[in-house]
Amino acid sequence: MKSAVENLNPTRVRLTVEVPFEELKPSLDAAYKKINQQVTVPGFRKGKIPARIIDQRFGRGAVLEEAVNEALPKFYTDAVNEGELNPLGQPEVDITELKDNELLTFTAEVDIRPAIEIPDYSGIEVTVDSVEVSDEDIDKSVEQLRERFATTSPVERAAADGDIVVIDLEAKVDGEVLEDGVATGVTYTIGSGELLDGIDEAVTGLEAGVEATFASELKGGSAQGKEAEVSVKVSEVKARELPELDDDFAQLASEFDTLEELRGDSRKRLEQSKKFEQATQAQEKVLDALLELVEVPVPEKLLQDEINTRKHNLEHHQLGQMGLNLDSYLEMQGKTAEEFDAELKEQAEKGIRTQFVLDELVNKEQLSVGQEELTEHLMRRAQSSGMSPDQFAQAVVEGGQVPMLVGEVARGKALAVVVEAAKVVDDKGETVDLDDEEDETGETVEATSETAEEPAEVEAEAVEAPAESEEKQDKAES
Fold it and tell me: In Å, how far from its chain's centre is CA 264?
């Protein structure tokens, strides 16, 4: 077999392969054997039909076609290995010549990983936010904890902002009540923004037993996007009561005896959280700086496939779970379809470039992934997926995704190498030591084509009905 490689562009090649006919003989014998098992010829036992009879009855061309189809993958793979190529995706194969008993010639066009030259990255310098925890930050943290221990009690007065109301709803479009437009006994916190636009204004000032109407655009259901006339009737008004901020509250909500100890623990936790945020920011900025140093051509087909995958995952998985569609998501974001497509392309292209560069770094730095590292990564991924480690591991193995996980860990280690070599300072000019966050550094970058980036601004909202008097919870972390 002879093969030649023609570079069509930095990310695509054409292989021209010539195969002497004698190298087709094993596949030709296999083709005759396969056809022998599939056909019946009077006078011959099944599987014992001579080759010349098969040629006469079914045509030599059918046998050649079967043989070539069986042999092509091997010849293509041999040509790829001979050319030392890293193909991406499936090739486009064209049989250019097939002479019986003489020669088979075919071409195969395929995208390849571009050759990347990793420059000296030791001079990268980035600035990140400094770690500062103010008294206001601690106040907010403690107040959030205080909110979790609030109690409710019925009141005989008009509903006000922050109150909890139990309401019945009925939506009409063009004067007709919608089949899915009636709800009773809905618990809602005024001012939370978790239901329809306009409902806060409608129920504020209403007492139990009083009804009001308002107009609102429906966000879901059979009449999504349409303007509806909504009737709301308040059946109960409840006031939320917060516990006093004192030592008794500290003992109720935590393992600490005093409020001062609780605030001190809040400061410690907030500092740790901000350090992790600082490390993540450092990674992102170092990665951006590294990508600016490297020229990375991106295959057009691979880019389009990545865009399609991300869009599909967004529409059919992430948004679907939240009861949204793409149009409603774009409306929430205040974006046009063109702006969304442009952003998606930019994200997809960056993801591919990141993967190419970090994979090249893995090779350059000769990084390997140990079993313990892979297990730790698998545990993190299982936790984020909501599956048990055993379930997640089984799904990974059955789906043939182990190499993908290994790649994710290796790319994380490659980025950690670059971050370690970079100079990271905060906005006060102080050098930032990221050693304490080393484990996090190795796990935050997963530039794969398998998953889409989550829309950061989209959140699944749920209205939780507060208990009449919430029971004391387990010891809670501030």
Answer: 36
